[in-house]
């Protein structure tokens, strides 16, 4: 088995801190789990409506795009430059933060 050794960037860590403050980590985790990781980068129209504020949505888009995934306006996700490791790292951190913030 191959070990995933992707790390989050400093920019992603700052966005995660802001996500914690805004209390949207669980929504971000749900988006990454459902529509990126398990959905093989396939989303359905309206997925980004999970966020009640545009600022939360923009923060989430920036966070995910730093992992090499382009989120479309309709909520679908398009991979760029083999993002699996970066998305997996983001998923693990979101999962841990969501668990710890409980």
Automatic annotation (TrEMBL):
GO terms for biological process: defense response to bacterium; pyroptotic inflammatory response. Transmembrane segments: none annotated. One of its GO terms (molecular function) is phosphatidylserine binding. This is GSDA3 protein. It comes from Cardinalis cardinalis. The gene is Gsdma3.
